[in-house]
Specification:
The structure is a homotrimer.
Chain A lengths: L4 E15 L4 E7 L6 E11 L2 E12 L4 E2 L26 E8 L2 E9 L1 H8 L12 H4 L13 E9 L7 E8 L15 E9 L3 E10 L10 E11 L4 E13 L2 E15 L5 E12 L18 E11 L5 E11 L18 E12 L1
Antiparallel strand pairs in A: 1-2, 1-3, 1-18, 3-4, 4-5, 4-6, 6-7, 7-8, 8-9, 9-10, 10-11, 11-12, 12-13, 13-14, 14-15, 15-16, 16-17, 17-18
């Protein structure tokens, strides 16, 4: 009667962070090689190539047992913070039902936005841990919560079929679900798309997401564009990723451009690989956008380098260790994932070592 | 070692609502053919016809990934609202352990109240979606939260055995769990029962629930009575349901009487069925119960009609579409499920189309 | 692909409590024979005796469908209360990943503190229900929330291998995860260890936990030490447990010493056992620690006796009933688990009868 696949990942590590001007932290963190998660999925053959699919996937924090929040309406008002220690498990990653055939796949529900797939695929750290490229792109950097950076609720998605000679792609629409009688009824409406091509060794994709928000001092329509590529030379796999993030606030356009170059290199005593990354963030915000001390926001640049090693104990289980360091300039306070923010123009570093198993 | 059955339903749809005087909403909703859910249940044979049973079943909202709330003590104080986007998955539908034998079944825990089974069985829309009969009976209509309309916590239930020649029935007691030293220690105490008979084609049942609450301006002892019947003619299945809801508040008795007639008619290109319903609500509240503008509450009547189609892609998966329209009178502001409330005496309409799969 | 074991326990009962001076309560409770829970665990053979293990286990309250809270940082600030009826399911009991071999087991995540294993093993009521020894040791008794009494987050644990001729033991470190720049960066840091020996019939273990907290009026560094033993004579199994709890607050040391003697005695019509316990609490707090009325806290003594019966319907399913009574002295207000607190020097009693099944 039941044709469901349950799966999960439990990834916990030991971490040490330094935030210039703000001390250090010892922590037990999680999800730095792969996001800790629990999920249920299935697919039913309806005949004639048609399938019904469902997917329910939520994050877990095994260092303390909690789940993670989602966003109800793709707007800052759609998410809050539960009282400490009370956040239950929910399906914050993916929750959808859909149909698929030779003509592609339709999904209805909560899903990753197309641009996020580039953030995962073209980062040697797969968007997880202290050295992720997302340290520069996931952060709203004090210009409003960018609700639709990773996932969107109330979405309709279409994915191209998998038989197009390596061409892949998808589009997504997501509703803000505001009553038409409110002030800004289009807030939280998202349009997103992605198109890529791979031949197995070479992989390239471009994506863009646009979410509507009425312009305020801290938020406004949000555009995220990225293009990435990877090439597997065998002795190493190289990654490149370029991101543009724009937020149109009242004082002008917050604009962040970042690029990352990285590699994974099979190496070491056994089935392991070195991971290395260098990323640069160039803030090109409008000249009227100022830091609290009056300096131009466009000076808030930063760069990051990261180095790690993954040792596969099996297909499912691995040990890993990663180090990353971010150097900020101007008023920038970017921090490695999980670490506290440094003072303006300060350095943020993090080191972590952990175990990841999956089932 | 493990003898558990896991099951679930994922049902997501595209919706458009109009609420006269209050604009419209485009939304991605869920659970309009079948409530989206995830559950775990099992039954152990203890010998001699005795079985131990457990059931854990919770709602999910796959359009955004959240779960739904429950009520701890069958009183308004027993439920709240989690910060947006933080509601974790929990077992808000059913969570019980029990024993069953040829003499019936005992259940201890959280369960549906007996009257709710009539709301499901004798509505062609099975108490889900824009056209459900519950649009008139589940709503407290500004006269207090009716905590025990659907489920009750802290319950002891007994169900008749299934070998009584078509006779079925159940009784439930649920505790409010108040300390005897508080002002109204019986608040939240529920008594409920249901008795029915079916021969396969014909099905009829009557039920009543009574929950104790001390009388205030907005709440008081709550009685829900309903009787329903269905007959399957083959070419169509007809449904009839009558509900009486009474709430004894300080100013008098809020009294709502509603009836519904409906049908499901196998039809169409393939394994599908038309669903149609007409419902009428007559408010017969005491003459001292007034609307905000001074008019009598007893004029707050309404009627609804609904039309839908379900197309079965398989036993587990279906496509569906439904339209419903509610016309209010007097101060009534009833709305189709999921839609915003119209102004007094306004019209509420909703249309939805979706996919439901189960596992 | 999936090698996970899912398991659970559903235990619900009918309860009646009396709290001298504060009335009585009728309730439907849960988890009084075994904590109601749902879990997912697995173990992967990595070759050479090495295994990767994961464990995800959370409490459930089947009487109302909710989950239970955890603590994020082993400090009072790390846990709160969700709005009524909204507490989702999460992994508040255990959530870890680890490796094991002939040299022992490493665990990273959220886990029971070593002292808690003595609370379970050497109590004939296994730390559950109205007659548990924990009525005296789990309670902070108005001297601060003792966040690390049962579980700790952000932990690294090591367990001795199971091939040491009956010797067993474990150590745990848990991080408070405070930034070094805050006032008391070591708050919430836990050190704990346990060492025991068993030959099957005889079992003895000692454990100690120490958690750092800066001294305030209501909290300070917390030490819990316990030693327990059990002997299975066949016709009865005897249990003894001694606990010392110290909390160093500004006015001095809150010190509670308690001992318990108990037994389980196979008896009755069928596969059942009587459970009996007597426990005594001696408060030996510093002389400057006073009750609200000015009397010395060191007079806040109490004793408890409990009697119960468990009838096994199968290996997985049991019926049970338990009675317990606590007599308080001085300003003590200890209550049986789940019951309301009596007035100072008052009596607390509880009786419960329920069903427990597991899968």
């Amino acid at each position: 009667q039941s044709s469901v696949t349950m799966w999960g990942i439990v990834d916990v590590n030991v971490q040490h962070f330094k935030a210039e001007g703000n001390g250090s932290v010892n922590a037990i963190g999680n999800g730095s090689l792969s996001t800790s998660q629990l999920g249920f999925r299935g697919s039913e053959d309806l005949g004639g190539g048609l399938r019904a699919n469902f997917w329910l996937e939520g994050s877990i924090n095994p260092d303390n047992g909690t789940g993670r929040t989602t966003n109800l309406n793709n707007q800052p008002s759609g998410t809050g913070t539960a009282p400490a220690g009370t956040q239950g498990f929910l399906f914050d990653r993916r929750a959808y039902v859909g149909l698929s055939s030779n003509y592609g796949e339709l999904r209805l529900g909560h899903d990753f936005v197309p641009t996020h797939y580039n953030s995962i695929s073209f980062d040697p750290f797969n968007a997880n841990g202290v050295a992720r490229a997302g340290n520069f792109t996931f952060s709203g950097s004090s210009n409003g919560s960018l609700s639709t950076t990773i996932t969107a609720s109330n979405s309709v998605g279409y994915l191209l079929p998998t038989n197009l000679g390596g061409v892949y792609g998808q589009v997504m629409y997501a509703a803000g679900e505001n009553q038409s009688s409110v002030a800004n009824p289009d807030d939280g409406t998202l349009f997103s798309g992605r198109l890529g091509w791979t031949n197995g060794k070479f992989d390239v994709a471009a994506a863009a997401s646009h979410t509507l928000f009425a312009k305020t001092a801290t938020i406004g329509s949000f555009t995220h564009q990225n293009v990435g590529a990877s090439y597997n030379f065998g002795f190493a796999k190289l990654f490149a990723l370029y991101n543009r993030v724009n937020v149109d606030v009242l004082a002008g356009s917050v604009r962040k451009q970042s690029w990352e170059l990285g590699a994974t290199i099979p190496a070491g005593p056994g089935p392991g690989r070195v991971r290395v990354t260098y990323a640069n963030l160039n803030d090109v915000s409008g000249s009227k956008l100022l830091n609290a001390n009056g300096s131009a926001r466009s000076g808030n640049d930063a760069n990051m380098w990261g180095l790690g090693y993954v040792y596969d104990l099996s297909k499912r289980t691995a040990l890993y260790a990663t180090y990353a360091s971010i150097s900020n300039k101007g008023g920038a306070t970017y921090a490695v994932s999980g670490g506290p923010a440094p003072i303006a123009a300060g350095t943020s570093t993090g080191i972590e070592a952990g175990v990841r198993t999956s089932f």
